[in-house]
């Protein structure tokens, strides 16, 4: 089965409404600012934020944003479109290699599960490092696992090098199991990785000296794993609910992990072992963020697709179960802004809106009927289509609220003239501080008591005090 048919629906799904919400969280506006500054200065070695060297992350995301700006795309599109296109290209590769190594049915199921899962599509729509790293790392792993030609090791190594340029040295740790089983390709993998990743590291070191390694390696790699000094401490079980939420609406399929038939293939057994290895590694780290778990979703999608393929007569119930979370989607959407601002525990669920989700139950009925008629591909596709409709519905409903309440873009547009001379009061959350700096195209100063106008935060919203 050709994979070309995947491209058009994925392009629509991933690019639709991509700029309908301004930059979110601290990282997006910060990385967008660095990419804009890099595009203006043509210095592609030293990342700079407000003209100061910034070594928190390697340069791949900044290069992508600079490329988007060179293409003269609008602000949010310039930063997000390259990430979305990387995701689409990876999904096409994902389907292709799985169709060859497993079967077209497993490949289709795994690709539809991954491409419509909440976690994957959310990070495919954000200008941050997690998606480029996850795509490059997973592609490198699959080539190391499935390709027999020694020359393919150079390609795997080059992709691993791109993963390093996306998120430093964590991909090297995650790649270890694949490296151990890639007999005959180990030296090419090392050579390919060094060829891609080493030049920038050496150039940044030569230009910036020990300050580069002190911040880039010691603070951002070692201390991020062993210390909570970066303010992202979480309990050891943190990633279990994160992964389940990232699978939405396919979360019920996680129960397939408890079926013995899911483990019947040695390739799937390796993916399960790698999944547990990566999960333990991330769980032991003192600093935890939801995006760190993104590399776990591609192998998990394969495991679930393979397990689903082995369910036999019970397949219809498993497939139809994925429609149940979609029914709750209209009730969950109003809670998203509060969840991002104050955490999921403080986000009220609009349960009365759940009746608006009943049409999604039709997808469950259609999936059940297709599976009952032994049309598993159509059954999976009906849920994936419902999930895609749910994603479009979410973007149309949630993005305007996110733009007004979570991003600072709407506030900046309403007060752009006054903001040019404003200062930022103490207590304004840093994600809004970085966003204001981006849209003002300069670092806004901190306020003293005599300064006016002041940007202050009151009741989880920005206010301009003149």
Give me some keywords for this one.
3 domains, 63% helix, two-stranded antiparallel sheet, three-stranded mixed β-sheet, 466 residues, mainly alpha, 3% strand, 5 strands
List the helices and strands and how they pair.
Elements: H1 7-15, H2 27-41, E1 48-49, E2 52-53, H3 60-70, H4 75-101, H5 104-115, H6 118-123, H7 130-146, H8 152-167, H9 170-181, H10 186-208, H11 210-226, H12 239-246, H13 266-284, H14 297-309, H15 315-321, H16 323-327, H17 329-332, H18 336-342, H19 358-372, H20 376-405, H21 409-414, H22 416-419, E3 423-424, H23 430-440, E4 454-458, E5 461-465
Parallel strand pairs: 3-4
Antiparallel strand pairs: 1-2, 4-5
Helix pairs in contact: 1-4, 2-3, 2-23, 3-4, 4-5, 4-7, 5-14, 5-20, 7-8, 7-9, 8-9, 8-10, 13-14, 15-19, 15-20, 19-20
Q: How would you portray this structure in words?
A:
The protein is globular. The chain has 23 helices and 5 strands. It is mostly helical and 466 residues long. It folds into 3 domains: 307 residues, no CATH class; 94 residues, no CATH class; 55 residues, no CATH class. Helices cover 63% and strands 3% of the residues. It has a 3-stranded mixed beta sheet with strand order 3-4-5, with no helix packed on it. Strands 1-2 form a two-stranded antiparallel sheet. The mean pLDDT is 90.
């Amino acid at each position: 089965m050709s994979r070309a048919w995947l491209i058009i629906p994925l392009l629509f799904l991933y690019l639709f409404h991509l700029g309908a919400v301004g930059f979110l969280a601290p990282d997006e506006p910060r990385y967008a600012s660095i990419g804009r500054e890099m595009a203006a200065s043509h210095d592609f070695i030293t990342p700079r934020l407000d003209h100061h060297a910034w070594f928190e992350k390697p340069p791949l995301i900044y290069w992508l944003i600079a490329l988007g700006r060179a293409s003269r795309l609008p602000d949010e599109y310039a930063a997000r479109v390259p990430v979305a296109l990387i995701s689409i290209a990876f999904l096409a590769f994902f389907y292709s290699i799985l169709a060859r190594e497993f079967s077209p049915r497993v490949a289709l199921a795994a690709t539809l599960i991954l491409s419509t899962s909440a976690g994957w599509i959310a990070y495919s729509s954000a200008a941050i490092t997690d998606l480029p790293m996850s795509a490059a790392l997973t592609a490198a792993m699959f080539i190391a696992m499935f390709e027999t030609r020694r020359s393919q090791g150079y390609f795997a190594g080059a992709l691993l090098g791109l993963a390093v340029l996306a998120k430093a040295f964590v991909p090297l740790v995650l790649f270890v199991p694949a490296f151990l089983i890639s007999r005959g390709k180990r030296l090419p993998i090392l050579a390919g990785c060094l060829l891609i990743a080493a030049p920038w590291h050496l150039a940044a070191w030569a230009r910036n000296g020990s300050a580069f390694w002190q911040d880039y390696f010691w603070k951002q790699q070692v201390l991020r794993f062993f210390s909570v000094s970066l303010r992202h401490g979480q309990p050891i079980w943190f990633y279990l609910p994160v992964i389940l939420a990232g699978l939405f609406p396919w979360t019920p399929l996680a129960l397939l992990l408890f079926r013995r038939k899911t483990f019947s293939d040695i390739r799937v057994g390796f993916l399960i072992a790698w999944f547990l290895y990566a999960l333990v590694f991330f769980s032991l780290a003192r600093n935890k963020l939801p995006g760190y778990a993104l590399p776990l979703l591609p192998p998990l999608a394969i495991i679930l697709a393979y397990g689903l393929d082995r369910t036999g007569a019970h397949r219809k119930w498993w497939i139809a179960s994925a429609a149940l979370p979609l029914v709750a989607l209209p009730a969950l959407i109003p809670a998203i802004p509060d969840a991002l601002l104050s955490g999921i525990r403080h986000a009220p669920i609009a349960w009365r809106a759940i009746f608006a989700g009943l049409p999604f139950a039709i997808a469950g009925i259609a999936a059940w009927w297709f599976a009952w008629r032994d049309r598993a591909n159509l059954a999976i596709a009906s849920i994936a289509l419902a999930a895609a409709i749910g994603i479009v519905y979410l973007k149309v409903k949630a993005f305007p609220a996110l733009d007004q309440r979570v991003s600072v873009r709407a506030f900046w547009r309403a007060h752009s003239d006054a903001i040019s001379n404003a200062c930022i009061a103490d207590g304004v959350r840093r994600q809004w501080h970085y966003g204001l700096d981006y849209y003002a195209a300069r670092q806004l100063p901190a306020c003293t008591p005599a300064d006016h106008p002041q940007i202050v935060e009151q009741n989880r919203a920005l206010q301009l005090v003149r």
